[in-house]
Amino acid sequence: MRSATIEVRRPSIDTILEPLPTPRKARLRAAEVATLVFLAFLAIVAWSHPAAVPLSTRTSLLALGFLFTVAALALNGAVGGWRYWTRELLLLPVVPYMFLNLGALIPLVNPFTHDDMLVDWDRRLLGPETQAALYNLPLPWWLSDLLTAAYSTFFFAPIVLVVTLGRRRDPLLPRVTAAVLFTFLVSYAGYFVVPAYGPRTTVAQERYATLPAGVVGAPLRDLLDHWERTKTDAFPSGHTMVTVAILFCARRRYRALYNAMLPVGALLIAATILLTYHYVVDVIAAVPLVVASVLLARFLAGRVSPHPPGEPAAKGS
Q1: What pTM was estimated for this model as a whole?
Q2: What's the domain count of the chain?
Q3: Structural domain contains residue 130
Q4: Integer CA distances (angstroms), 114 to 191, 194, 230, 232, in order
Q5: What's the rounded Cα separation, in Å, for the pair 61 and 235?
Q6: Looking at the domain assignment, is residue 35 inside a domain?
């Protein structure tokens, strides 16, 4: 009778000789950290004034910060599919949410508006005659419509930039996002330092009220006026700052996109003054501030290097 043979499996020594792979550490990007810092600042202001800020706003700032952190950490290292897009687009809804809540918080930090000072700066810069002529410059209806439409694209330009570079799987997209995000945050900080309504409420009040209605101009301006809950956002010109930052990044990473966005961006910056949304000094101040924003992003997130000519962008699934 043959005896049964029992096979004894010896444990592998692979785990003794080779350490287990270390899991990727979850970490936040520079733009995400900056967003959380600014959200924390807004939350501190809100919770320091419970009588002036509704409980729903105070709790939403905390909840958004928590959910944003969890999502960013969970999506760390995503290279393709819906995880990639969720990570790259994660900041897009947060930025306008912060802006919409600035209006209630700015007076709690700085209750004084500075339109008189900005009007005086404009007058000193331009001279009284040029200032008066600028805010009484007649616009044909078609130009008013064109400028208003270009001004409205501000809300979509960052999305176009991120989605276009994301489709090309641009490896420097996080750095581009950081440059634009820091520009937004610096402009928001400026609203706390120099709250102002803009010339359409002071020296150009009559001019703004009598702009040609046109076909789409008047309805768009009316929509923007009602939708924009943060009113003291004249200085600096965030429209100018962010548009310049977007054009800078587009020129460096995808020249065809830059060429397409440049005419619209130029009209948008012109509209800030011609439609009396901003003083001239608001636009001038935007230039050094956007340079500072991009340099800060470069220091914290890395340089937005020019895309080598003729080299295709990396593509992913």
Answers
A1: 0.89
A2: 1
A3: yes
A4: 10, 6, 15, 9
A5: 24
A6: no
